[in-house]
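Morning F.,

Quick status update on the modeling queue. The single chain you submitted on Monday has been processed. Sequence for confirmation:
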Amino acid sequence: MMLTLTENKRKAMERLSQNGVISALAFDQRGALKRMMAKHQETEPTVDQIEELKSLVSEELTPYASSILLDPEYGLPATKVRHEEAGLLLAYEKTGYDATTTSRLPDCLDVWSAKRIKEAGADAVKFLLYYDVDGDKAVNDQKQAYIERIGSECQAEDIPFYLEILSYDENIADNNSPEFAKVKAHKVNGAMKVFSDPRFGVDVLKVEVPVNMNFVEGFAEGEVLYSKEEAAQAFRDQEAATELPYIYLSAGVSAKLFQETLVFAAESGANFNGVLCGRATWAGAVEVYIKEGSDAAREWLRTEGFRNIDELNKVLDSTATSWESKVN
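Structure tokens below.
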């Protein structure tokens, strides 16, 4: 069933995209960012440091992105310095999960709601969900009810709902392992199918590519688990799993591999509608910022950061399709 958008949601989607393609910068990292920063200094990163780095990235790179995803905890100053034509998504989930269980239950930020996210100037609400399509049924029921709640909130506020799904397996600890690579397509595509049901109120799915390209023939440097044709089929199956607009997350891979993956996805028949790309664009600025300061980080963003996002935009021009073809 094709997505139907209200007039307000459609206008918001237009603000978040360019010619129907979402070329969004993701910088809602919190726990992961703190760990990245802590590698380069002996003390815990301060709130001021985190806010300043997010603001630098927003100011320097949003002129070249259709929108930016930030978090309300550290990203609000960065929302104020983004380019005037760049749309804004705000994250609604708490960062991380309870590592003592396999359930990875979601949790909203305590003092936020879809209403408050909208009042903060966001064009869309983003929520991250860890989901194992083969996981414990009681846990999955809980997660589905949680997403229904957020979908209803977003419908009440008439604001687009972007659901980010990170797949996992309750019995496999390492998502980068060959063991998980063998089941990844099933996990990713299965979860997309579940949350494409209109009952969840999702407008855009933010998803992983369905294969770990490090194990694909022609991309792998070591063990090969997928032929190119098997990998291409996984992308075709992903396309068949949903009628909703969907965009890819970069999952921390290098800028080069992410760009090559998008080309492969398009050639395989995936009609994806853009990206929410984070670390592949700005990761190199973290060490420069910690070791050399804000001026050096700004210079890195104007050169390397710009190159990363410019090259990505060129790839998107030839690979991504407009979300407008998927809505009534």
